[in-house]
Amino acid sequence: MSGDSGPLPVPLAHRVPDLGALELLLAVARLGSLGRAARELGITQPAASGRVRAMERLLGVALVERSPRGSRLTDAGVLVTDWARRVVEAAEALDAGAQALRGRRDSRLKVAASMTIAEYLLPGWLIALRTERPGTAVSLSTGNSAAVAERLLAGEADLGFVEGLDVPAGLTGTVVGHDRLVVVTAPGHPWARRRTPLEAPELAATPLILRERGSGTRQVLDAALATHGGLSDPLLELASTTAAKAAAVSGAGPSVLSELAIGEELASHRLVEIPVRDLSLIRDLRAVWPTGHRPAGPARDLLGLTRTQA
Question: Which of 58, 157, 187, 231 shows its CA 20 to 30 Å from the CA of 42?
């Protein structure tokens, strides 16, 4: 069966004047002068005249009569102006509603961050954000990098921060800093008395105090030692940097920890850094968000602060 549905209707946007033209018409009606209306709207008089002519061609009726004494609306122009006023008022209501929605969005920010970033970097960024947006309430959830990705993908956070080798699947990110993982022991450990750097295979074969799988620290260490026999079974597997650091300080065994997290312990000699030959343990610190949903409002501002302070 063949049917002819006729020509497709012309979209409404091509059949009615735009808001700028309608605002100009209302200004002419109020001020009685095309020139004064143009000045109020910040456009030239030739541009205003062209906009009126285009509106008249589009509607097929004359709207404004021009004379040396000014401009006045035709009868048709009076009717169109009444209709235009309702359209502009509806647009103003739409704009006010959108501002209210933005205000509600901008009044809160949900951040998810991996442990190291949450403890050692994020506080400074959030203090700076509070200076720029004192009315924004921030909620922070912490976890390993895998948990941060899960929260973002579930819509439970507006912006996330992770450590590791790459951006988790489903997310887009940007590098906001770098961190170095350091092999450390308590001063009484035999490695602390070594005169030569540790070899990577020896590190790989030694049971260590490790972060849990899914953490950025564990991911980087796994990758770095993959060509040296892989990590041995852990001596202890702990869910936070603070717990791993405390275990290392107590003398339980060697650990691999973020340089950001152990500055105080190294300075006070409660931990000793153990050099490792030919092993890179540098990792990227990233801000991340769901792909296709660029950060907006306070999330965008926080992202900007991480870049200026990185």
Answer: 58
